[in-house]
Design a protein that fits this description.
This protein has helices spanning 7-17, 25-29, 32-52, 55-78, 84-98, 100-103, 112-133, 154-166, 175-195, 198-218, 223-247, 257-270. The protein is mainly α. It has 2 domains: 7-147, Helix Hairpins, CATH 1.10.287.1080; 154-270, Helix Hairpins, CATH 1.10.287.1080. It comes from Bradyrhizobium sediminis.
Length: 271
């Protein structure tokens, strides 16, 4: 078996890994549920490579993510549910349908807002079609929020829930109103601290995070990317503390909090 630029080689490799008797024992033990966490992890690795601007790493991480798609498709094929080709056909059909201004026989060209409107309309049609295929008891009440995937990361799902609610006017009109909500949630956390209720503190902290996502949405920031940027900034500044102390022949354990705070401010001033 040799490497190849052809997708068929990757399909052959996955089939070999999943072949009973001669395949990989670990791969043969896996199912959709056990592989799903790896799928999510690989998507994060792609986002991380993009954030770092490392295109070589991005190439490799996209390959890892593609492997996840192939893995799930192979397991589905083993159950006679669908195969990789069906996945490709489904997404190509979807993209053609969602871009009639590109692929349909039309002289008209949509503006960006028109493209967004058409995209949302077509997605709504697709959701209705999927709902029609479900048993009646599953579709007796179809919430506006039903289309927000439960498996999304919490920050992304909070953003999507808020966007859905905003589409029917359930939203603030001014980011400053969201700031007031954030201050209100912070006050509630302080009150919960006084009561020492761990469950209440967890709930109030969740409310504060939800409000912060709302603020990010109102100012046009992606909360996950914003937090990734802050994580990188924290690592950079903390690394400065470690390096400075090491140059002095000292460790983090040797330094007081006041000294570390001073070095943090020094690192901040150098950026």
């Amino acid at each position: 078996m040799t490497p190849s630029r052809d997708i068929s080689r990757l399909l052959e490799i996955m089939a070999a890994l999943r072949t009973p008797g001669s395949g990989c024992p670990w791969d043969l033990e896996q199912d959709f549920a056990t592989i799903a966490p790896y799928t999510i992890e690989e998507a994060y690795e792609v986002a991380d490579a993009i954030a770092r601007g490392d295109l070589d790493d991005l190439r490799d991480e996209l390959g890892d993510l593609l492997l996840q798609v192939v893995y799930h498709a192979r397991m589905a094929e083993e159950q006679d549910a669908f195969a990789f080709g069906d996945v490709v056909e489904a997404v190509t059909r979807k993209m053609i349908r969602r871009h009639p201004h590109v692929f349909a026989d039309s002289d008209g060209r949509l503006t960006p807002p028109g493209v967004t409107s058409a995209w949302e309309r077509i997605k709504a049609e697709e959701r209705a079609e999927r709902a029609a295929r479900r048993p009646a008891e599953e579709t007796s009440h179809q919430s506006l929020l039903a289309g927000v995937k439960a498996g999304l990361p919490a920050l992304s799902r909070a953003m999507e829930l808020q966007r859905k609610a905003s589409s029917v006017g359930f939203d603030w009109n001014d980011p400053r109103e969201v700031l007031r909500k954030i201050r209100e949630e912070a006050d509630e956390i302080e009150a919960a601290l006084d009561r020492g209720d761990a469950q209440e503190l967890a709930e109030e902290t969740g409310d504060l995070l939800f409000a912060l996502v709302n603020l990010a949405r109102h100012v046009g920031a992606d909360p996950d990317l914003a937090l990734r940027g802050t994580n990188a900034k924290f690592e950079r500044r903390f690394g400065y503390i470690e390096r400075t102390l090491a140059a002095q022949g000292r460790t983090l354990q040797d330094a007081s909090l006041a000294e570390m705070d001073a070095l943090w401010d020094e690192a901040k001033s150098k950026e």
